[in-house]
């Protein structure tokens, strides 16, 4: 147990109040309550993880004829570099080289992901563009911020669609 104090509770028969005291020293602790706060469990993934919607995975798999093999490879490479609040700072040449893909094919696959509503372009940072993964697909960040990001994305008309409203449209409930 180390230096932790073990406190015992007793009721004072005259005042009918509870007292906490340390049985080893006899020290009476001030009024209050004992609270157990468990240690927060650590993720086996460390800090490098995100949550992904199962319906989004089904949508992506049904879009295989549009995405093709290169599109899935680019999606996985981008998801592997996902930062908090779903931002991705990319250097297209570097990522294309890392996954063994021609830069032109990488760019085409990126445009297909954008056309499906999986990613959106953001502002440039230096020479590299910023992308943002649709919060309906996956999320890396705090849960309360995810809820807000979903609302903003819907207000902006950001959805996972292929050529307008069709039976393959992904509409995740809040």
- Count the DSSP helices: 5
CATH architecture of the largest domain: Orthogonal Bundle
Number of strands: 8
Given the helix and strand composition, which structural class is it?
A: alpha+beta
Radius of gyration: 26 Å
CATH H level of the largest domain: which superfamily?
Winged helix-like DNA-binding domain superfamily/Winged helix DNA-binding domain
Give the strand content. Answer: 15-25%
Mean pLDDT score, rounded?
80
First and last CA, distance: 46 Å
Which overall shape is indicated by the principal axes computed on the Cα atoms? elongated
Strand order of the largest sheet: 1-2-3
Helix % is 25-40%
SSE inventory with pairings:
Layout: E1 8-11, E2 18-21, E3 28-29, E4 51-52, H1 54-62, H2 64-79, E5 87-89, H3 92-98, H4 103-115, E6 119-125, E7 128-133, E8 138-139, H5 143-155
Helix pairs in contact: 2-4
Architecture overview:
This protein is an alpha+beta fold and 174 residues long. The protein folds into two domains: 7-37; 51-155, Winged helix-like DNA-binding domain superfamily/Winged helix DNA-binding domain (Arc Repressor Mutant, subunit A), CATH 1.10.10. It has five helices and eight strands. It has helices at 54-62, 64-79, 92-98, 103-115, 143-155; strands at residues 8-11, 18-21, 28-29, 51-52, 87-89, 119-125, 128-133, 138-139. Strands 1-2-3 form a three-stranded antiparallel beta sheet, with no helix packed on it. A three-stranded antiparallel beta sheet has the order 5-7-6, with helices on one face. A hairpin with a 6-residue loop joins strand 1 (8-11) and strand 2 (18-21). Helix 2 (64-79) packs across helix 4 (103-115). It is elongated. It starts with 7 loop residues before the first strand and ends in a 19-residue tail after the last helix. The model is unreliable at 161-174 (pLDDT under 50).
């Amino acid at each position: 147990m180390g230096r932790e104090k073990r406190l015992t509770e007793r009721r004072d028969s005259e005042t009918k109040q509870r007292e906490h005291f340390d049985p080893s020293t006899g020290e009476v602790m001030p009024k209050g309550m004992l609270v157990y706060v468990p240690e927060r469990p650590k993720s086996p993934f460390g800090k490098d993880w995100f949550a992904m919607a199962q319906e989004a995975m089904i949508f992506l798999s049904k879009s295989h004829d549009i995405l093709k093999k290169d599109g899935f490879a680019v999606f996985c490479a981008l998801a592997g570099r996902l930062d908090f609040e779903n931002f991705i700072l990319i250097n297209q040449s570097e990522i294309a080289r890392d996954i063994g893909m021609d830069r032109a094919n990488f760019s085409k696959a990126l445009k297909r992901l954008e056309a499906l509503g999986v990613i959106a372009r953001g502002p440039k940072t230096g020479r590299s563009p910023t992308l943002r993964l649709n919060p309906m697909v996956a999320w890396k960040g705090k849960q309360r911020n995810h809820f807000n990001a979903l609302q903003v994305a819907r207000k902006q008309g950001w959805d996972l669609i292929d050529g307008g409203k069709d039976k393959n449209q992904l509409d995740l409930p809040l």
